[in-house]
């Protein structure tokens, strides 16, 4: 048969001489189609699945309607089941949750039973809400702070952490943490050569090696005129302004020359959500206790 003609040729039904199986009467390129029925057990399972599907449609919510869906004869609802589970969890936590609401952060930390409960709840809440940015181990990534290293833009005390979690950073709360670093290059405050000079000075105060022949005296002058007001005369930062310490070699966006030039040129404006409208006060307290316990709290 011509290779371009793939249509089946109808021939008379018969019995295949080799297998002894009846044929369907179809032939492709000299190959006859055997009439091999599906195994009976397979067919019964197939039919049973169809019956099961119809039964499922009747018993459980299944079909979408214009504004709702079929409810099913047993009235099952995954939302209702979740609500019941959450209510049972709240009842189980009961007294401990109430104690967290009324106790101060310091009292929670001093009370072993409350501390254990807060750490467990805080760890769960961290995994659900914070880990996507900070990582499960809270080690962070470029642009997302490491919460284990005792280096804090806005302070690492229990109160500081609670405030930051509650109101966020550049979030939608009226009390959100907020600062603005000028984009010295993009806004034409400094030219490219001045930015490179300033970056080399920052490299030097952080214990790194600046470019050969870098004019550190000019860099120091540029730093004093443009950066010291927030980062301090020695570049050690200011938690009240959220200004990072530039001498400790802990960098949120990278501390190599190229990263520093990029930061000085374009500035940075990371955002942390405001959690006060998403999490209850008990959970926020538990998160503050948990983050503080990671080894980076002050």
TrEMBL record:
Q: Which residues bind heme c 2?
A: 181, 227, 230-231
Q: Name one GO biological process term.
A: oxidative phosphorylation
Record keywords: Cell inner membrane, Cell membrane, Electron transport, Heme, Hydrogen ion transport, Ion transport, Iron, Membrane, Metal-binding, Oxidoreductase, Repeat, Respiratory chain, Transmembrane, Transmembrane helix, Transport
> What Gene Ontology molecular function terms does this protein carry?
electron transfer activity; heme binding; iron ion binding; oxidoreductase activity
Predominant location: membrane
What cofactors are annotated for this protein?
A: heme c
Where is it localised?
A: Cell inner membrane
Q: In which pathway does it act?
A: Energy metabolism; oxidative phosphorylation
Q: Where are the transmembrane segments?
A: 41-63
Quote any Pfam family the record assigns.
Answer: Cytochrome_CBB3
Describe the location of the Cytochrome c domain by residue ranges.
Answer: 117-206, 214-295
Q: What GO cellular component entries does it have?
A: plasma membrane
Assembly and interaction partners: Component of the cbb3-type cytochrome c oxidase at least composed of FixN, FixO, FixQ and FixP.
The record's similarity note reads: Belongs to the CcoP / FixP family.
Q: What is this protein called?
A: Cbb3-type cytochrome c oxidase subunit
Organism equals: Blastochloris viridis
Query: What does UniProt list as this organism's lineage?
Result: Bacteria, Pseudomonadati, Pseudomonadota, Alphaproteobacteria, Hyphomicrobiales
Q: Which gene encodes it?
A: fixP
């Amino acid at each position: 048969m011509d290779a371009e003609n793939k249509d089946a040729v109808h021939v008379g039904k018969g019995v295949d001489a080799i297998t002894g199986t009846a044929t369907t009467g179809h032939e492709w390129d000299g190959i006859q189609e055997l009439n091999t029925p599906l195994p009976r057990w397979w067919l019964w399972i197939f039919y049973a699945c169809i019956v099961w599907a119809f039964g499922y449609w009747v018993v459980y919510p299944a079909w979408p309607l214009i504004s709702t869906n079929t409810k099913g004869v047993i009235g099952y609802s995954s939302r209702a089941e979740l609500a019941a589970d959450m209510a049972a969890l709240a009842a189980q936590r009961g007294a401990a949750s109430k104690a967290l609401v009324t106790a101060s952060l310091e009292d929670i930390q001093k009370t072993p039973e409350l501390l254990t409960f807060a750490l467990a709840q805080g760890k769960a809440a961290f995994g659900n809400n914070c880990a996507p940015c900070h990582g499960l181990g809270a080690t962070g990534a470029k642009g997302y702070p490491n919460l284990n290293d005792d280096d804090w833009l806005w302070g690492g005390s229990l109160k500081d952490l609670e405030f930051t979690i509650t109101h966020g950073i550049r979030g939608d709360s009226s009390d959100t943490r907020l600062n603005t670093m000028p984009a010295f290059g993009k806004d034409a405050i400094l030219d490219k050569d001045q930015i490179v000079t300033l970056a080399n000075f920052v490299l030097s105060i952080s214990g790194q090696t600046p470019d050969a022949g870098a004019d550190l005296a000019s860099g120091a002058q540029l730093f004093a005129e443009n950066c010291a007001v927030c980062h301090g005369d020695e570049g050690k930062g200011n938690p009240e302004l959220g200004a990072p310490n530039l001498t400790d070699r802990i960098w949120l966006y990278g501390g190599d020359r190229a990263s520093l030039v990029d930061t000085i040129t374009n500035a940075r404006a990371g955002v942390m959500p405001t959690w006060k409208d998403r999490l209850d006060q008990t959970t926020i307290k538990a998160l503050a206790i948990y983050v503080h316990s990671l080894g980076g709290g002050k």
